[in-house]
Amino acid sequence: MTEHDLDLDEQQLADGAGPADFDAFFAEESATRPRQSLTLYGTGYQLPESLPLMFTLQMERVQTSSNADDVRKMLATLYGLDVLDTWAEHGMTDRQLGVVLIYSAANIRRPGSCTMQRAAQLYEQQEAGKAAAPNRAARRAGPKKTTKKGRSSGVRS
Q1: Which of 11, 12, 120, 157 could be 17's S-S partner, Cβ–Cβ 3.0 to 4.6 Å?
Q2: Contacts by 106-114 with C-beta closer than 8 Å and gap 24+?
């Protein structure tokens, strides 16, 4: 954006254009953005045109929480209420949920950019990365390193 562009914006305000109406702007912009659709357990879902801020915030919370309600809230922003229970009743695994989330996030950002197979590959890479770095408890449970030196006479050298 150049200084000239800013001058034009200020001139428009001076000419009585009024304050910026982000509600109207975002509604118009949203209507023109492509959306990805998917089918899961016989139900069709249309992903939002952009990643909701609430999803991002809930995703952070879910990583440090074991509360299923946090997962429910996160999924509701993309797929609607009660999908976690519906999907669980159909036998969804944690791996399948991870693949669906990777697929969804990628295709919300850029519809058509990620296939289901690619989402599965990305999930496997993510899980392999987690397995490669043992957590603190696993490191502590492992064999102890000994750092004993030979016996000393107690005399300084």
Answers
A1: 12
A2: 107/36, 107/38, 107/47, 108/36, 108/47, 108/48, 108/49, 108/50, 108/51, 108/78, 109/50, 109/51, 111/34, 111/35, 111/36, 111/47, 112/34, 112/36
User: What pLDDT score was predicted for residue 146?
Assistant: 56
CA angle 118, 56, 42 (to 5 degrees): 55
State if pTM tops 0.70. Answer: no
73, 58 in Cβ contact below 8 A? yes
Q: Evaluate whether 104 touches 49 at the Cβ level (below 8 Å).
A: no
